[in-house]
């Protein structure tokens, strides 16, 4: 019974979201679809970065590097499978299967990159991770720009436009479910313990390095997913799309939303994606505003707007009544 | 042989630059245990400060050695002030808070400088500030003379910058190990709380450390501008990253270690890039960082410190 409930908890969001997304996708025009896809990609990025920066209390600022790894892997696969019919399936199903395969491979390769970056830097204190991930984000760009196989600076063009609102929406749901289920698991408790006090956690027998690396790998995989989804909407994959500007945007979302708050990240991703659309005039000030925001938040409210609480924790305690312990 | 000598000369001059920047990282880390992410951008500000002073003095039309001195003095003063201001307004209020908070602030300050300098010009400043994203070119303060001893390409700029860089490093060595300020700085780095109890003005020493590091970054920026005159607002990112690698390599918090690490990194980069593929030059420092973190995370001259609870 408990196992069934757990399975339902993970599956239900997908079952609910799929028809809604499909309906929304049919009813929306081009401009709104582009905007919503942008928001949802940022939701995936922010929530997955929150696993490292929020839950675990480490600080990664190279999320765009893992996006790039996932995006290039997926792009290479979809371009190679462009006109291939898989196992005599109908074209639509075959395309979807190819896309799922590409995204899955993108996630795996990004996870592998996360493992390679995470193992040396996570054995040490958190501030090394920041500079190593920053370096990684820059180096991956240098490597791509010098590799003819990856199209160098011009990138890979002519990607099939597989990304739809449904795909991105399901990706975002998957990320949120992952984060939520992780948070409530033994693994997640270990991560929170590391965030609160790494020495104490280690003394209590938590394998701190192992858990940190696992969290980092999971986070990198979902960044790869976001990258794969993004390039199949833009139909182009260039190193310029994955500079540290992108990483920094995601960091700003996580810090603003609250480190450790999933709903906070979702909300911040929505707000910070919508803000440049609304305030076109302020676009050149965007990065300056983000950096000022970061400094001011750290000086005044270092946990971000929501801290590690969720949005519904701020509502009047309706649900708590049943527990009978509310004062 | 000629090629080897050429790489050696290039490597040493590149290495002294990394060493000068790495010193700022390592000194600040020593006293605050903070990776000052904004340090690479202080280097960038140093280049622009020198550029503005040079423009104000009219170096481009009437170059002179005297003006070169003034450019140095001006850029060093501006960077010193910037370092002190960053410490006072961004880092000092956060002292004693979790380290992650200070780290995020440092990242924020770094991006603030990078993107602040990319803004279009403000109308109310008399000179063209902020400079915007297009690169500027540094004027030459005196005539360039090229020599080729043993087939190695050398200019008077290379010789002078090597001399200046070594002079500043020796000067720093003197300040850190032979003056009252240096002794106080080492005491603060050893244990800030006890140093405070012994009557050392900890705040003033930390501010002084930032000023010292920022001044060295300004010197490094101007020396680079002599041979590579192109300056832009994100020029500090890569040198900053590499200088950090140099500091970690030498053992972060260790002053001679930073000098050694800088030189070693400059030579490694120049030789590896020179003899193999030069397009991956920026990846070399990163590879070294990964290796150091894997094999000897405390660096060559660093102390292994156990975390006290």
List the topology elements.
The complex is a heterodimer of chains A (about 325) and B (about 300).
Chain A: H1 2-27, H2 30-55, H3 63-80, H4 91-122, H5 126-145, E1 156-157, H6 165-183, H7 186-196, H8 198-203, H9 208-234, E2 236-237, H10 244-257, H11 262-278, H12 286-300
Antiparallel strand pairs in A: 1-2
Chain B: H1 2-32, H2 39-57, H3 65-91, H4 99-116, E1 136-137, E2 146-147, E3 154-155, H5 156-178, H6 180-190, H7 192-197, H8 202-227, E4 230-231, H9 237-250, H10 255-275, H11 281-295
Antiparallel strand pairs in B: 1-4, 2-3
Which chains make the largest contact? A-B, 42 and 47 residues
In total, the number of strands of chain A is: 2
Strand content of chain A: under 5%
Strands in their spatial order, largest beta sheet of chain A: 1-2
| Helix segment tally of chain A | 12
Q: Could you spell the SSE succession of chain B in H and E letters?
A: HHHHEEEHHHHEHHH
**Rg of Cα set of chain B:** 19 Å
Would you tell me the structural class of the helices and strands of chain B? mainly alpha
Specify the overall morphology of chain B.
Answer: globular
Mean pLDDT of chain A: 84
- The geometry of chain A reads as globular
Ranges of chain A with pLDDT <50 over ≥5 residues?
Answer: 321-327
């Amino acid at each position: 019974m408990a196992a069934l409930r757990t399975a339902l908890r993970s599956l239900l969001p997908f079952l609910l979201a799929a028809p809604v997304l499909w309906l929304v996708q049919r009813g929306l025009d081009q401009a709104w679809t582009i905007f919503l896809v942008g928001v949802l990609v940022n939701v995936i990025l922010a929530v997955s970065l929150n696993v490292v920066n929020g839950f675990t209390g480490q600080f990664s600022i190279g999320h765009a590097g893992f996006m790039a790894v996932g995006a290039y892997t997926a792009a290479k696969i979809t371009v190679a499978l462009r006109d291939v019919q898989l196992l005599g399936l109908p074209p639509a199903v075959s395309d979807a299967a190819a896309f799922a395969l590409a995204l899955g491979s993108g996630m795996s390769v990004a996870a592998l990159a996360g493992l390679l970056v995470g193992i040396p830097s996570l054995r040490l204190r958190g501030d090394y991770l920041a500079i190593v991930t920053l370096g990684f984000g820059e180096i991956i760009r240098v490597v791509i720009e010098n590799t003819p196989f990856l199209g160098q600076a011009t990138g890979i063009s002519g990607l099939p436009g597989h990304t739809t609102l449904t795909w991105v929406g399901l990706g975002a749901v998957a990320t949120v479910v992952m984060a939520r289920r992780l948070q409530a698991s033994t693994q997640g408790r270990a991560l929170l313990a590391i965030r609160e006090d790494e020495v104490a956690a280690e003394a209590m027998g938590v394998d701190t390095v192992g858990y940190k690396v696992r969290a980092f790998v999971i986070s990198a995989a979902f960044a790869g997913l976001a990258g794969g989804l993004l390039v199949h909407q833009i139909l182009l994959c260039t190193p310029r799309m994955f500079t540290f500007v992108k990483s920094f945007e995601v960091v700003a979302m996580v810090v603003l939303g609250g480190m450790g708050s999933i709903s906070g990240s979702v909300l911040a991703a929505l707000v910070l994606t919508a803000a440049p659309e609304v305030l076109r005039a302020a676009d050149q000030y965007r990065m300056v505003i983000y950096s000022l925001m970061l400094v001011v938040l750290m000086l005044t409210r270092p946990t971000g707007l929501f801290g590690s609480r969720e949005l519904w924790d701020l509502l009047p305690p309706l649900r708590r009544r049943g527990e009978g312990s509310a004062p | 042989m000629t090629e080897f000598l050429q790489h050696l000369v290039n490597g040493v001059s590149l290495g002294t630059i990394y060493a000068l920047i790495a010193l700022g990282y390592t000194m600040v880390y020593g006293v605050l245990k903070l990776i000052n992410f904004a340090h690479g951008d202080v280097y960038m500000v140093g280049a622009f400060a020198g550029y503005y002073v040079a423009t104000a003095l009219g170096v481009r039309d009437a170059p002179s050695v005297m003006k070169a001195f003034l450019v140095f003095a001006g850029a060093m003063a501006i960077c010193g002030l910037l370092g002190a201001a960053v410490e006072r307004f961004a880092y000092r209020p956060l002292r004693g808070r979790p380290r992650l908070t200070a780290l995020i602030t440092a990242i924020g300050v770094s991006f603030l400088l990078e993107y602040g300098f990319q803004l279009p010009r403000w109308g109310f400043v008399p000179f063209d500030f902020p400079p915007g994203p297009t690169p500027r070119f540094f004027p030459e303060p005196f005539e360039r003379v090229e020599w080729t001893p043993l087939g190695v390409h050398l200019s008077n700029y290379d010789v002078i910058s090597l001399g200046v860089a070594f002079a500043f490093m020796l000067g720093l060595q003197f300040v850190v190990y032979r003056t009252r300020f240096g002794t106080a700085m080492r005491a603060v780095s050893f244990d800030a709380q006890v140093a405070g109890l012994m009557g050392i003005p900890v705040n003033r020493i930390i501010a002084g450390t930032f000023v010292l590091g920022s001044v060295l970054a300004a010197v490094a920026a101007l020396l680079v501008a002599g041979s590579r005159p192109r300056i832009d607002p994100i020029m500090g990112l890569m040198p900053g990253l590499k200088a950090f690698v140099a500091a970690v390599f030498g053992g972060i918090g260790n002053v001679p270690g930073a000098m050694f690490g800088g030189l070693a990194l400059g030579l490694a980069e120049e030789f590896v890039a020179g003899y193999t593929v030069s397009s991956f030059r920026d990846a070399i420092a990163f590879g070294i960082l990964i290796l150091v973190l894997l094999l000897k995370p405390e660096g060559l001259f660093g102390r292994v410190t156990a975390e006290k609870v």
